[in-house]
Specification:
This protein is of the alpha/beta class and 240 residues long. 35% of the residues lie in helices and 23% in strands. The chain has 6 helices and 13 strands. A hairpin with a 5-residue loop joins strand 4 and strand 5. Helix 1 packs across helix 2.
Length: 240
């Protein structure tokens, strides 16, 4: 029992440390924002701190910015912090800030743990500058330990699974929590996770996955990140 309690306390402390690192990089990214800019607002626990920091700048510094959310979650948080929202139809994006599930040394990413990678990719690719924020646990030598999320048309499940298996991946439908059945994206599609173990060529795999009929978008983000702001126990680390 003592060993269990000790382990539980360790995990609790670790959770606090990671939460503080996420907050640190969220605030650091907010310092990159200038008055009058249009922002891409990513999705996820780390990006939430960025959105909150922008909300404080709007309130306390009275900066004028507008946000383009990548999900209902980021839309609702922006509204909560009184950040005006707009769309790609109306404005170009100056800076997009988003999190990542994995980051390799070339700043290729795996994203989509929150199931919002389709709109994230549209908005992040459209931005003049794309900044990734994460704690250092997300930095890896090679992508692949985290499965690649894919958004797929529900009717294509069988053919998509077959194609991914032929490519050496192990696909699985992402199951919802507190709801029976699969996770449904904001766009009304299935989210599946494809395990590849080790991805030596993320640029090619991103293209190959998107060539499968029925795949709307996959969670590999290659050759698009301008800067990564990484939170470590020794402070902020910048990767370019």
């Amino acid at each position: 029992m003592k060993a269990f309690i000790k382990e539980l306390l360790f995990l609790t402390d670790l959770g606090r440390i990671i939460m503080n690192l996420k907050k640190m990089v969220g605030i650091a990214a907010a310092e990159e924002v200038k008055d009058g800019q249009i922002l891409g607002l990513g999705t996820g626990s780390t990006t939430n701190y960025f959105i909150e920091a922008i909300g404080l700048k709007v309130k306390e510094e009275e900066i004028k910015v507008m946000g383009i959310p990548t999900s209902y979650d980021s839309f609702l948080l922006a509204k909560q912090w009184n950040i005006p929202v707009t769309s790609l139809d109306e404005h170009d994006i100056d800076i997009a800030v988003d999190g990542a599930d994995e980051i390799d040394p070339d700043l290729n990413l795996i994203k989509g743990g929150g199931g919002a990678h389709t709109l994230e990719k549209i908005i992040d690719y459209a931005a003049a500058k794309f900044i990734v924020i994460a704690d250092d646990s997300k930095c890896v030598d090679t992508l692949g330990k985290f499965p690649v999320p894919l958004e797929i048309i529900p009717e294509s499940r069988k053919t998509v699974f077959s194609a991914i298996t032929d490519m050496g991946g192990i696909p699985a439908i992402r199951k919802a929590e507190r709801k029976v059945g699969p996770v449904i994206s904001d766009n009304g599609n299935f989210i599946i996770d494809a395990e590849f173990k080790k991805i030596d060529n993320p640029i090619q795999l991103e293209k190959d996955l998107n060539s499968i009929a029925g795949v709307v978008e996959n969670g590999i983000f290659s050759q698009m990140t301008d800067k990564a702001i990484i939170g470590t126990s020794n402070g902020i680390k910048i990767l370019k």
